[in-house]
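pasting for ref. prot 1 ->
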Amino acid sequence: MSSQVNVSQIGTGTSDPGEEWEVYSWTTSESEYNKERKRARFFTVVPDPNVRVEVEGIVQMEITRVWNMVRTTIPPNFKIVNVLQWNVAILNSGAQISAWELLQAETDN
């Protein structure tokens, strides 16, 4: 059982109305894969209030998709290597350009 949830900012940017971004993150070793695949991850995207692009109006950001994948490679020594990749797509569904930040919460187990 997890005893803690860690929150971190994993992305920032600006996007025009209707523009979608995809953010990817992955492990770099087999030992990381075995550790990371047991964690639960949750994402949220929020307009960044410190970067005002427009003077007034409604800024609306949403997460449209979250997915995970495992990439497997077989090098010449035939030792299979798995890489876990987690992904999130965010959309500016508002009517004006917006700065945003993407936050990730994950368990510590």
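and prot 2 ->
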Amino acid sequence: MAMTATDGHVLDLRARPDVDADELEDVRRHLVDFLGEWLVASAVLDDQVLRLHVATASRITALAAIRAGVGALGCEDLFLVEAHGLHASRSRL
């Protein structure tokens, strides 16, 4: 079964309070380059959240892809690691 652009998972990465929107935008651009076509959409939201729509059938695969991308960029310290720092939901746009 092929995935469509409306399938996948939306993940919100909550930044630490001292991280500004420009830093999040830099991370977003690098993740677009790193993940390529797997990253369907992305945006920096006003409340220090980086929202990523990942084209994967599995929530776990989406989380792993984003964690791998953030780790490869060396910017794990920009985001909160508490339970609410990374939230994933099924996308049905």
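The chain has a mean pLDDT of 84.
The radius of gyration is 12 Å.
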